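Task card 7
Instruction: Convert sequence to structure tokens.
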Amino acid sequence: MTTAVVVGGSTGVGRGVADAWAAAGCRVLTLNRSRPVGPGAELLEHVEVDLAEPDAARVVLRSLPDEIDLLCYSAVYFTAGRAPLAETTERDWEAQWRINVHGLWLALHTLLPALRRAAPSVVLSISSEVVYNAGPMRAGYAATKAAARGLVESLAQEEDPDVVRVVQALPAQMVDSPGIRARRPDDFDYADYMTGDDFGPLARDLVERRAADLAGEVLVVDHGGAFRPLGDTLPTSQSRPAGVSA
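Output:
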């Protein structure tokens, strides 16, 4: 059976990937602090982990299966709301680095042997348009996601694509998730937002073809599930003008 691990798989994009992999017949382990709930949760194996505690997280990661066919890293820390750099707390700044960068490094560094043993395996890293657009009021998020991109792109060039195939994917629009909802007013309209399910077609393709022609690619996932290479066109910025809350 294909073994899949989703770090940050209880909600949002990670949950969409986890559900799609489970529906495709994979054994799916979701690594989160919170247990997945709702339809399909019974198909997911919850492994509790707190990436803010790297020593404990490393122990959990080392306890995973010896062969991992698919790995998705979707864990992310946004902060409670957008704020100018001068008003960003050191606590939030450090938390973004712990989850968005060091957690990614820790997962890759620890699980690479298991991924190599399952050759050809796939690493799917969930990126963001902020990598290419930066933007006011989110310097920490932009900096950490750009650092994650550099880390993943370096890995893609280091690994033999016949063994480990590394893919990045980012949503074309905002994604409805608990983290986003915590930052929005109660009456906010999410009708135009993407959901984690929009990543289902890409996730299923990665199961079926093991990223045969996608190694090293950065993909944009559109509302509805279509996906395409980023190419030379910058993704649409989700930044708001400075001074506008989000």
